[in-house]
């Protein structure tokens, strides 16, 4: 680990977040949600403290704009405050719901901002190699480290699906590959990222950081 | 599309969860998949894992949240409560989650496709003609009592019923307040909403010639800007379901794109003329 400080920092950051999560839940989400349904302002303040950084960052990764990311943060939590039943516990956890809803809103905002022309038309004219070079420059240090051992085709897929929010149909068109191949790459890339995160975490834990 | 439950994860279920979490699904598929999640523990677990990866990535490459953000947010929450937005009253008439549990009624896809063909013909006409064609189609395909298009006039802070078909057609041109209406609520929440007896909350509906039993409202955007809402209402015991929502959502998407194209074309014609 000492020979690769960048990898170390990925593990540090992730492990630090995990430590926060481990210390956090004095009151669980279902209790906060129940209080939210009763109109308890304290519950939405607690949820803000618990999830604001997550929501802001999920949005920021797509929009790269602090102001709009903050708007999305407010929209998502206000939606939950105004209509708590927007979230349905039978379909998953609040953490997953907030992550997915935020991402969707950020992508919608990106698409509306650029109208379809910028996303679909301009994009098609760029070839995959140009895209790889340019996009990796956009990806900041820690995530870049996470991707460095990954095959180029997966890195490109990651960039298009995760950072730019393109659908698998748009990615297929852009890279000139079948839809099934794109879907398979998306699955593989998320699986690789997960494995890498787990590996970094295991190394960090092994070093006694947690 | 996502009918059967899965006892184990497969490549296909992992792909579906990944696409869902990344925001890939279109509205109708997303609703269908979310409904599937409530009965498939295996896919719920896949979604948990994928969303956790997305969350971890977001937190690894963390950008600082502006320090004023918390105060701004909580001030907004308090202000909304204090200035009479009365979200608790609004909540009492919103029954959107019921859409996903009501029994399905199969739509006639041939009829829907034919309707879109007819709507596409309207693209050479005016925005008003398009809106009127949309509400007539919505009225018919959703078997509604009234269908309407409420255009948002931001400066005046009102929605105006610019196109209406059905029982309330004579109310065309009427307005509802931006800050206190089913349409405003739907735009605030940024997603379709189902209202039950909305006059219990929005008192001005009590003067309506036809009581509204249910109202299904879908936001419509042109580019990034809210344009208005497309809605259907029932005046008897008719209830709406997710198929009605799919129809309305597809019309709303079509409308947003079409109006955007019309406006671009007008702008181009204007600049060519100069």
Task: Report the biggest beta sheet of chain B as strand number plus sense, adding barrel if it closes.
Answer: 6 strands, antiparallel
Major sheet summary line of chain A: none
| DSSP, total strands of chain B | 6
Query: The CATH topology of the largest domain in chain B is what?
Result: Beta-Lactamase
Distance between the termini of chain B: 51 Å
Q: State the total count of DSSP E strands of chain A.
A: 0
Level-2 CATH architecture of the largest domain in chain B: 2-Layer Sandwich
Note down, in words, how this protein is organized.
- The complex is a heterodimer of chains A (210) and B (274).
- Chain A is an all-alpha fold and 210 residues long.
- Helix content of chain A is 79%, strand content 0%.
- Chain A has helices at 5-23, 29-37, 41-63, 66-82, 94-124, 128-138, 141-147, 152-163, 168-175, 179-206.
- Chain A is globular.
- Chain B is an alpha+beta fold and 274 residues long.
- Chain B has a six-stranded antiparallel beta sheet with strand order 3-2-1-6-5-4, sandwiched between helices.
- The longest helix of chain B has 32 residues, at 242-273.
- The radius of gyration of chain B is 21 Å and the shape is globular.
- Classes of the chains: A mainly alpha (210), B alpha+beta (274).
- Chains A and B meet through helix 1, helix 3, helix 4, helix 5 and helix 7 of A and helix 1, helix 3, helix 4 and helix 5 of B.
Chart the SSEs and their pairings.
The complex is a heterodimer of chains A (210) and B (274).
Chain A: H1 5-23, H2 29-37, H3 41-63, H4 66-82, H5 94-124, H6 128-138, H7 141-147, H8 152-163, H9 168-175, H10 179-206
Helix pairs in contact in A: 1-7, 1-10, 2-3, 3-4, 3-5, 4-5, 6-8, 8-10, 9-10
Chain B: H1 11-22, H2 27-37, H3 41-60, H4 69-82, H5 87-91, H6 109-121, H7 127-141, E1 146-153, E2 158-166, E3 175-177, H8 182-189, E4 193-196, E5 214-222, E6 225-234, H9 242-273
Antiparallel strand pairs in B: 1-2, 1-6, 2-3, 4-5, 5-6
Helix pairs in contact in B: 1-3, 6-7, 7-9
